[in-house]
Amino acid sequence: MVERHRFIDILSHGLLIVGVLVIAFPIYLAWVGSTHSAQEMAQAPIPLWFGNEAWNNYRAVLMGEGPGVTSQVPVARMMWVSLVSAMSIAVGKIVISLMSAFAIVYFNFPFRKAVFWSIFITLMLPVEVRIVPTYQVIADFGMVNSFAGLTIPLIASATATFLFRQFFLTVPDELTEAAKMDGATPMRFFWDVLLPLSRTSIAALFVIQFIYGWNQYLWPLLMSTEERMYPIVMGIRSMTSGADAQVQWNLVMATAILAMLPPALVVVLMQKWFVKGLVDTEK
Questions:
Q1: What does the alpha-carbon distance between residue 107 and residue 187 come to, in Å, rounded to a whole number?
Q2: Are 144 and 257 in contact (CB under 8 A)?
Q3: Distance (Å, whole) CA 63 – CA 72
Q4: Where are the domains of the chain?
Q5: 154: DSSP letter
Q6: How much is the average pLDDT of 67-82?
Q7: Per-residue pLDDT tens digits for 176-225
Q8: What is the pLDDT of residues 33-51, one digit of tens each?
Q9: Can you tell me the distance from the alpha carbon of 81 to that of 69, in angstroms, rounded to the nearest whole number?
Q10: In this structure, what are the phi and psi dihedrals at residue 263, rounded to the nearest 5 degrees?
Q11: What is the distance between the alpha carbons of residues 11 and 206, in angstroms, rounded to a whole number?
Q12: What is the model's pLDDT at position 201?
């Protein structure tokens, strides 16, 4: 049994508070910056308290009424591209990984183990390594500047396949035999037994993969040659790369705050399922 000491409690809470402040302070600065005008943000030091331009700044970036990139592509459009991409990647990874793990565990076919290990070995080939041939294939199929080009190459996931395979191996054989005796088809067994048992793992993977898809930058940088297909991460980068025009930091900060909201909302809404999927041992 671990003894609790007042000094240890104070020290641990102090470290936690310092850690939260270090993480939250840049977010606070971005929030404050999004409420000031461009002239106020150009001053040194930058303001540390909220201003009166929040409505104008957020309306400007969402509707594309501000200077710079926002006059060409509204941030609302960028957020829509990021949302569609993140949802497609998350759902696609989960569906493909579930079906591939189900086939590997419950079906006997030649070279079953070889197939699994060939999938697992792809963990050593991240997008950065295979980005040139992948881009060539997508370009040959004419999927540049499309949602298909942004999402399809990122859908397959060896990690999710491995996790679902390991979970399916822990399912008691008695459940499989009972399903066979009841006359359940393989897909009925998958839909009525395996899928409900996997819901916490699915929720945890959905949160991770949604954030992964939302934060994509390198692949959209190649796939999106037109600004209408820019995700929000590329939009922020383009807003800060103006060669001649002055960077409108108030609009950049407003865009950054908007970019944080969907991932944060997903984490908050699915926090219970996410934690349970990571630590739950009642399989």
A1: 12
A2: no
A3: 10
A4: 75-233+261-279
A5: G
A6: 74
A7: 888 888 887 888 888 888 888 888 888 888 999 999 999 988 889 888 88
A8: 888 887 777 777 788 888 8
A9: 16
A10: -60, -40
A11: 35
A12: 86
Q: Is the per-residue pLDDT at 264 higher than 70? A: yes
Q: Do 41 and 249 meet the contact criterion of CB atoms below 8 Å apart?
A: yes
Does the pLDDT of residue 8 top 80, yes or no? yes
Residue 263 to residues 35, 108, 111: CA-CA distances in angstroms?
22, 40, 40
Checking 182-191 for CB contacts under 8 A at 24+ apart, the result is 186/106, 186/107, 189/106, 190/102
Amino acid identity for residue 225 in this structure: T
Residue listed under structure tokens 């950049």: 252
DSSP summary character for residue 2 = P
Q: How far apart are CA 222 and CA 149, in angstroms?
A: 10
Q: Residue 63: enclosing H or E segment and its boundaries?
A: helix 54-63
Tokens 């197939």 belong to residue: 115
- Tokens describing residue 51: 């201003």
The pTM assigned to this predicted structure is 0.85
CATH classification code of 75-233+261-279: 1.10.3720.10
Contact 250, 57 (CB under 8 A): yes
